[in-house]
Design a protein that fits this description.
Strand 6 (about 150-155), helix 8 (about 165-170) and strand 7 form a beta-alpha-beta unit. The protein has a single domain, classed as P-loop containing nucleotide triphosphate hydrolases (Rossmann fold, 3-Layer(aba) Sandwich), CATH 3.40.50.300. Helix 1 packs across helix 11 (about 200-215) and helix 5 runs parallel beside helix 6 (about 110-120). It has helices at about 15-25, 45-50, 55-60, 75-80, 85-100, 110-120, 130-145, 165-170, 180-190, 190-195, 200-215, and strands spanning about 1-5, 30, 70, 100-105, 120-125, 150-155, 175. With about 220 residues, the protein is of the alpha/beta class.
Length: about 220
């Protein structure tokens, strides 16, 4: 199973959602934001190396942290030296080896996002309730539809309720309220489940993971 986590606008918390959802699903998290990686950097080869032919996808998966992670490099030279069109094959190999992969896609509608969506079995859109974020998220949904990556759910971040997002997107919507536990988890290199196992946001992430599992298994 390959789940692409997308969002048309940066700053909506997409990377955090991808990382926490990977933890809840016991999946590998792939940082596929080739130009602006946000997930933790770890030692060893990264996605830039894989896409440039210097390492295999499996060699680049780091299993030393709370979530198995295929990190992405952070250098401009690395981003320029890799081939985004090979991303689909990389994701398929990771999913074949680990069964589940959650992909943190770059914001926007560039070919990096398109390559990940082309390989995905399903996608999840992350947005906030701001007008610009919702507008861009709707455009991201259309790209996913064009590439046949079924929309599982919409995450409305930094909100206590999803408002009318379910109706606007035609998909289940899960609201994630703001939480200091998210910053604490990131600061200590842990997951929400480790920092705040009984927290409200952790419960919503678990709800989201259950929704993903049910949706993907029914496809």
């Amino acid at each position: 199973m390959i789940l692409a986590v997308i969002g048309g606008k940066g700053g909506v918390g997409k990377s955090t959602v991808a990382f926490e959802l990977a933890a809840a699903l016991d999946a590998v998290c792939v940082d596929a934001d080739l130009g602006m990686a946000d997930l933790p950097a770890r030692r060893g080869p990264d996605l830039h190396d894989v896409l440039a032919g210097r390492a295999t996808p499996i060699e680049a998966v780091d299993e030393s942290g709370p979530v198995d992670l295929l990190p992405c490099g952070r250098t401009l030279a690395g981003a320029r030296g890799c081939e985004p069109t090979a991303l689909s094959e990389v994701l398929e190999r990771v999913a074949a080896e680990y069964d589940r992969a959650v992909v943190d896609c770059p914001a926007g509608l560039g070919r990096d996002s398109g390559a990940a969506l082309a390989a995905a079995d399903a996608c999840l859109v992350v947005t906030t309730r701001e007008r610009a974020a919702l507008s861009d998220a709707l455009r991201a949904r259309e790209l996913a539809r064009t590439l046949d990556a079924g929309l599982v759910a919409v995450v409305v971040n930094f909100a206590s309720d999803p408002g009318d997002v379910r109706e606007r997107f035609g998909a289940p919507a899960v609201a994630l309220p703001e939480s200091v536990a998210i910053a604490r988890a990131a600061r200590h290199g842990l997951t929400l489940g480790e920092i705040a196992p009984d927290g409200a946001v952790t419960a919503r992430i678990d709800e989201l993971a259950t929704l993903v599992q049910r949706s993907v298994s029914s496809v």
